[in-house]
Each structure stands twice: as C-alpha cells, then as structure tokens.
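quick one, 112 residues, struct below
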Amino acid sequence: MKKVEAVIRSSKFEQVKQALHEIEVNFFIYYPVHGVGNTDSETSVWRGVTYAAESIRRTKLEILLQDQNVEKVIQAICDNARTGDVGDGKVLVENVEYLIRVRTGEASHEGL
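---
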C-alpha cells in the first residue's frame, strides 16, 4: 500500500480532482497549504495582479492506494496540475505499513 501526497496550485484542484475520479480514485483528503519555494525572483500574473511564485495558493492531496495504481495516479496528477511555470508543485510517494479503521478497529497490512 502507498500514500501519494501532492502539493498543487489550488487553481488546478478541480481539474486534478476530475482526473482522479476518471481513474476511479474517489476518496482522498485535501486541504489548503502554504509554503516557501526554491526561488524568490519568479513572478506570475493572475487576473492582472503580479504575485511572487511562492505566494500562490496551494492545495495538498493525500491519497491511499494499492501499489499497482500509483503510476496512473501520479500521471493523472502531473498531467492535470502542470502549467509549465515555476511552482506547479510536487508529488511524494511513501510506503504505508498498515492502517487501522477507526470505526471497527480492524488493522490491515495489505489493503484498503
């Protein structure tokens, strides 16, 4: 089992969400985040206002999934979050040893 974490531009969230639903990823966690990037001289213009690239709103997604689905999830995120500009985001993949369902107390080492 894997956990995919992605930080993307908030403006691309709906497009990424739709792409995930199309590949049958229907449950994930998302929330707004703030951070600092590697560059401080890049700027973007949105609706006529110039912003520093690190100040653009971001959304973080957390997705638990089976190992065999990781590549298609990464592809869906990258294809739909990419603008080609600095600050498009990052994707992180981690191993999940096990999970516990809060409702039942059931522990699983193999799947969701």
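The two ends are 8 Å apart (CA to CA).
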